[in-house]
Design a protein that fits this description.
Helix content is 48%, strand content 19%. The chain is built from eight helices and twelve strands. The strands form three sheets. A five-stranded antiparallel β-sheet has the order 1-2-3-8-7, with no helix packed on it. Strands 6-5-4-9-12 form a five-stranded antiparallel β-sheet, with no helix packed on it. Helix 1 runs antiparallel to helix 8. The termini are far apart. The longest helix is centred in the C-terminal third of the chain and has 45 residues. It is an alpha+beta fold. A hairpin with a 6-residue loop joins strand 1 and strand 2. The protein binds 2-acetamido-2-deoxy-beta-D-glucopyranose.
């Protein structure tokens, strides 16, 4: 049931397209006369964003198009370098002047859930302009210095019904669409068709990073753990489980190290944008997994008194690697805003692994209990004889 809901989500996300949008505004060009390199129909409030990212100059030329909530209202768009949502957004807000009716754009450094006063923002903005189109939609354009090596940014947008006094916007509605107006702006994927060749290399490397990590930390290592935990119960599988386990983990570790290296490289390529927690978890997973490999050589013999401690250590670190690895894959998918179908596919794979583990856990316990009973029975018979 949960899977069905997950699978249907993207349908709802794309059903919000309104009049206008990327297809209708394909001819929209930036102030210097060039067409924008990329466009995306935003999932809420019928808004659209067009942009060109100049990777070398670190400048983002952007046009945001949306209709105010009512004629004479305002529209706003911003980037949030501090998180998702309104607090922390560096926003461009376009509103008509109450006296002349001319549209003007102001920048807002929004620190909480109140707009505050206009002022300088973290991304110096130039060429700000706004105009009202014949279709009632307002087009806000400008260029922001977002820095070189930007990849995925958080964007927020909003529309409001009224402007009071000297271009001061009245609060927007608090309905679901207004509160959910946030999305990722992916400067890597969506500039790969333009002259930005650096962007397409990064896009390829990012896909490789995701696939290697999902396959290794996300699938092979948990599978290897399942082999070890459950095959061991069957005496007939005795040395076989060990070789299966070691093979799975060594292949998983090898592929994982390759994925980890692409991650370090991607992190170095994106100056100024670091994904702190994702990076830290990635480094921790790599360090713990490396420790596991080396600890194999220090494994005491089966009958050694320290073997018990070694086993406890090996299991604890192994489970930590698996849990942190899977968490970090979800974290990475959230950072990149990957398409829902990839998320759904990975969630399904984790569910299958989880279901297999739970089933085998039950089988293992019943085998162990039956074996104990048989042994007990054997002892009693022996004692009576
Ligand atoms: C934006 O506001 C925050 C918090 O009030 C402040 O620390 C920051 O320096 C401001 N940024 C700019 C560019 O003025």
């Amino acid at each position: 049931m949960a899977m069905l809901v997950l699978a249907l989500l993207p349908l709802f996300a794309t059903s919000a397209s309104a009049a206008g949008g990327c297809a209708a505004e394909a001819s929209l060009s930036s102030p210097n006369g060039n067409a924008y390199a990329a466009c995306s129909d935003l999932p809420r409030l019928g808004a659209t964003v067009h942009w060109t990212y100049d990777r070398a100059a670190g400048s983002l030329s952007v046009a945001f198009v949306a209709a105010p909530a009512a004629p004479g209202g305002w529209v706003a768009w911003g980037l949030n370098p501090f998180g998702e949502g309104m607090a922390g957004a560096q926003a461009l807000l376009a509103a008509p002047s109450s006296s002349s009716g001319a549209w003007a754009v102001r920048t807002y450094n929004i620190s909480g859930y109140a707009l505050g006063a206009p002022g300088p923002i973290a991304f110096p903005a130039t060429g700000l302009a706004a105009e009202l189109g014949a279709d009632g939609r307002v087009r806000v354009s400008g260029t922001l210095s977002v820095g070189q090596g930007a990849s995925v940014l958080n964007q927020v947008w909003q529309v409001g019904p009224t402007v009071s006094g000297d271009g001061i916007p009245a609060p927007h509605a608090m309905g679901g669409d207004n509160l959910a107006a946030k999305a990722k702006l992916d400067l890597v994927r969506q500039t790969s068709t333009s002259s930005d060749s650096g962007g397409s290399d990064l896009a390829r490397e990012r896909n490789i990073h995701g696939i290697l990590n999902a396959v290794s930390w996300g699938l092979l290592l948990p599978m290897g753990a399942i082999f070890a935990r459950y095959l061991k119960t069957f005496r007939s599988a005795d040395p076989a489980w060990f070789y299966l386990h070691v093979t799975c983990q060594i292949i998983g570790y090898g592929v994982g190290v390759a994925g980890w290296a692409t991650g370090i490289n991607l992190g170095n390529a994106s100056n100024g944008v670091t994904y702190g927690l994702h990076r830290s978890i990635g480094i921790a997973v790599f360090a713990l997994a490396t420790l596991q490999v080396f600890a194999l050589f220090l494994r005491p013999r089966k009958d050694h008194k320290c073997r018990l401690y070694w086993n406890a250590y090996h299991h604890a670190v192994g489970y930590a690697v698996i849990i942190l690895g899977i968490m970090n894959i979800f974290k990475g998918m959230a950072i990149l805003g990957v398409e829902q179908r990839w998320r759904t596919a990975y969630v399904a794979a984790v569910w299958v692994l989880g279901a297999v583990a739970v089933t085998l856990e039950a089988v293992t316990w019943s085998v162990v209990i039956r074996r104990r009973e048989a042994e007990q029975h054997g002892k009693t018979l022996h004692g009576a004889a």
